[in-house]
Amino acid sequence: MKKLLCMVMVLAMVLSLCACGDTTTTDPSKTPGESQNPSSSKEPEASKDPASLPTVTLTVWGGEGEESQAFLKAAVEAFKEANKDKANFDIKIGAESESTVKDTVLADPEAAADVFYMADDQVAALVAAGAIAEVIFETDKVIEENGGQDSGSIKAASVDGKLYAFPATASNGYFMFYNKEYFSEDDVKSFEKMVEVAAAAGKKVSFQMDSGWYLYGFFNGAGLSATLNEDGKTNSCDWNATSGTYTGVQVAESILNLVASEGFTAASDADFQTGIAEGTIIAGVNGTWNAKAAEAAWGENYAATKLPTFNVNGTDVQMSSYAGYKLVAVSNYSENTNYAMALARFLTNYDNQVMRFEMVGEGPSNVQAASSEKVLADPATAALAAQGAYATVQRIGNNFWDPSQTLGTILAQGNPDNIDLQTLLDNAVEGITAPIIE
Amino acid sequence: MEMEVVSSNPFKALGAAIIKGDIWTKLSLFIWGAGALGRKQYIKALLLTLIEVFAITMLIQYGTPYLQKFNTLGEVEREVTREMDPDTWEMVEIVNDYDNSQLILIYGVCSILTMVAIVLYGLLNMVRSYALQLRAKRGRHINTFWEDIKSLKEEKFYKVLLSLPVLGVVIFIIVPIVCLIFVAFTNYDQNHLTPTHLFTWVGLRNFKLLFTSLGGAFAYSFRKILTWTIIWSIFATLTTYFGGILMAQFINSPKTHGKKLWRTLLVITIAVPQFVSLLLVRYFFQDQGIVNTICRNIHLTDFLRNIGLIRSSYIPFLSSPGWAKVTIIMINIWIGIPYQMLIATGVLMNIPNDLMESARIDGANKFQIFRKITMPYLLFVTGPALLSDFVRNFNNFNVIYLLTDSVYKTTDQTMSSIRAKEVDLLVTWLFRLTQDEQNYKVASVISIIVFIICASLTVVGFSRMIAGDKEGDFQ
Predict the structure, then answer these.
(1) A6: which chain B residues are within 8 Å (Cβ-Cβ)?
(2) How many angstroms separate the CA atoms of A56 and A334, rounded?
(3) Chain A within 8 Å of B95 (Cβ-Cβ)?
(4) What residues of B are in contact with residue A202 (Cβ under 8 Å)?
(5) Which domain holds residue B47?
(6) What is the interface pTM, i.e. ipTM, of the complex?
(7) Does residue B74 fall inside a structural domain?
(8) In this structure, is residue B2 part of a structural domain?
(9) pLDDT tens, A356-404?
(10) Domains present along chain A, CATH in parentheses
(11) Which residues does A350 contact at the CB level (< 8 Å), separation at least 6?
């Protein structure tokens, strides 16, 4: 017994001595290899030996939805099969929402997946942080397939003329869903007419006013801009313009006019789904991700079209929108950038864009795939294509979102405190264009 | 015999060692084994010197590359060039010799702490050598190595036991806290994210951002959020505390039937994980949630609108600043009372019955008993818990974040420009700043402030409440 105790104590002492050694010698000793040392550099990779294939481990993050995970699984299997002469692939698939993947990546860029899906609004921030790698694989071919240098999807994936991601879908924008039981094709041309019809029927038209992403459609439609500056961080915005065709106040007034209608509601995404299922919402601005829900709720009466006009100072103005794309990016810290590039390229090629459209319902960015009959027959994709003429690629810095959301929230509540509209817009613009404190 | 002892004052002891120490003692400051060597403790001398050599070598080998760059936190940004063969997929990837500010900061701090430890140990070692010198001079027994080992498992066994916990505290608490404090003096934010970019020292600028007009929106939001944090902590603590006591009183009352049933029902709210119930409640109280539907159906919404309390077609339980704050406190009462009730029940059962009886015989009524006996007793016993509850509520992330995230949209244009909301506590604002904005510099200033407030409250409160001589004050 006593011996045992002795041994335990000796062990504890040795342990504490070892441990002491650690504290007094700083931590690098604990991290084997040179990878942590700032003065180390990666050797050029030269791991091609046809006799014994290398084993390559990759991680892919895709959207959380069941459908997109199923698609990803199928596409990854196909990639492994098609390239088994290149390497033995061990590819792990993770779920990470495309709309917020930026936050996860920036929290620790080195721990990000090698390949990940994202919405195009996050490109600027990820490039600025050096988190994603420039496309170095079949770049020209990718640009050509997606409609050339000036196409929306390529512009959305580029910063300073350099391509940073592979376009995967072109259906991340918004348009108008409506129920044909209540609206004629003429009704849906004007927002004012739509809320009037809805009010008469005791129902609602939904528009997510308390989100800068949607609110942009009104201001940009009236020719007021909000866009990223050359520095890639700060914004320019003239939503408070007092001169020009339409002033900011006039736009805000027409928004307040719509909001005041009994037939209007500023439902969130979740509320929109509940609303159409319950039948309280009979039309609404939303995206392809809710197409299946709308189709299920309205059946034969399900229809979709471009955004309506809205009335500014007596004139009907076509609403604008953000054209949205989903992209596939490669981490700048990937251990196997080349294989990651190849995988990202594979996930976004013609075949896989078509497969994604069939499995997930998202419209392709590949020009050829987008013009296929199946895609054109889909009402949601067709509506999005029609809205495409009035849509702009999203180029906006981080400071846009919260001030515009606050502006939208105040407008959606009908400006309860009766703040002077010019002051309201001035404040919003001040927030949107605020300099980045260095 | 006791004429020359080592003073218990470390500075006096050190002074004595420096002045009166012989050559071995003096040398032991630089060569740790010297003191032991002078008294013929050869194994100990060898071990101590080896440890010293090891520590200093490691410091020089691993610490210096970081320490050299500590004053700038690095100057070379990461640059990568890649070329890939489209057919073979062969790639040439060249990464430059870049600096990583984050690693420089962390390892720099570790190295500095190590240096401090080495110097302190050197001084301590000299004092010990001096003590040894005195023992030798007086001709008293000097331990052999084995006797030293033996003493470690007998009268000095506490040292063996404490060594691991102390080490844990240093590695997992002190080092991270020191690093965090240093971040507050850098510009570590979204535009200076490592490893691609570098961050560097900016002095007190982040503090000025929060406390002076330089910060504009920051200073404004900080003031508002701090005020609400304090109001929230006071209300959340007091309402649940007194609610819990009242509830315990009711259930403990001899007239109450089914005591166990009531207690069980209340405790069920504890059994359900807090975040589950909070998220559910958030959906109930949304603008289009079930509570609003009920209120509309019973015409409460219309009534409130008629008397001018609300202006919307729903009750903004969690979406307007005033309503949201009240709702949050109410919901916190609901989830907080059961805990306090359990604590109060335990304490109430321990109040000596003779106190109550004699009061009753003296003709005191129930309220008087409660006010003069029960409450003072409870306060005496649960005072420290009350204080730690306040501190806990000050940092009550769960309730605030889970109830307001994505539901509450601020209409304060100044606050929204820096991601703050009226209902944010300092800790939830800090979370948003780090999660959504990667604004680590401001976040660490906020956490320093939170630490200072909570630490001073705790220190002052505890020293007043449970000072050793207060034990007899009750009764």
Answers:
(1) 153
(2) 11
(3) yes
(4) none
(5) 10-203
(6) 0.78
(7) yes
(8) no
(9) 999 988 889 999 998 888 888 888 988 988 898 899 998 888 889 889 9
(10) 55-170+324-392 (3.40.190.10), 175-322+397-432 (3.40.190.10)
(11) A145, A366, A368, A369
